Amino acid sequence: QVQLVESGGGLVQAGGSLRLSCAASGRTFSMYAMGWFRQAPGKERERVAEIGSSNTDYADSVKGRFTISRDNVKNTMYLQMNSLAPEDTAVYYCAARQFGHSYAYWGQGTQVTVSS
Fold it and tell me: Which whole-number Å values give the CA distances from 116 to 8, 28, 80, 88, 94, in the listed order?
């Protein structure tokens, strides 16, 4: 069982930056692949970025602007978001999955609002 808690959301002007954190419980954090997802009002949830043991992958819409990372000592995953745009406004969720499985653990979400 993994419990995830996001933090770091807020209101920022277009062009600004935010760093989201996802703190995970448990002692086997390094055994999970992790991901960030987001859901804007009236839209389906979409994948933002994923990180395995060291490899990363990004949605085209955030490539070059967002950076995903993890600290297996602190049991924490991060999402550094730069050059934010109003279309990045959404609730951001972190998720965890065992390698080779689907995402099974989700955080409660943190709101990111980008004003124009």
Answer: 20, 41, 20, 11, 25
